[in-house]
Amino acid sequence: MPSSTKNLIRLMLVAIIVLAFMAGFYQSSLSVEKKKYKLLENKLEKLETKIEEMDF
Questions:
Q1: For position 23, what pLDDT does the model report?
Q2: Residues of the chain with pLDDT under 50
Q3: How high is the pLDDT of residue 1?
Q4: What is the DSSP string of 1-56?
Q5: How many domains does the chain have?
Q6: Which domain holds residue 11?
Q7: Cβ atoms within 10 A of the Cβ of 30, count?
Q8: HSE (CB half, 13 Å, CA atoms) of 21?
Q9: How many CA atoms are closer than 13 Å to the CA of 35, on its beta-carbon side?
Q10: Which distant-in-sequence residues (6+ apart) come within 8 Å of 19 by Cβ?
Q11: pTM more than 0.70
């Protein structure tokens, strides 16, 4: 194989690996944010029920 073809294959392999790591990081971050959102949503519901129970 010519040298330029080898370099192109190496570059493409590195790009695939980098993109795979980026996709994994994004997936992990997304799941963490979803968990945070759920926790905040639950806290909000609890506060709303407490406010509704209070009589002003």
A1: 98
A2: none
A3: 75
A4: --HHHHHHHHHHHHHHHHHHHHHHHHHHHHHHHHHHHHHHHHHHHHHHHHHHH---
A5: 1
A6: 1-56
A7: 10
A8: 5
A9: 6
A10: none
A11: no
Q: Retrieve residue 35's tokens.
A: 């968990």
Tokens encoding 4: 């330029």
Report the pLDDT value the prediction gives residue 3, as an integer from 0 to 100: 87
Amino acid at 31: S
d(CA 29, CA 15): 21
The tokens describing 36, both together, are 């945070």
* Residue 11, both tokens: 């570059």
Enter the tokens of residue 23: 């996709």
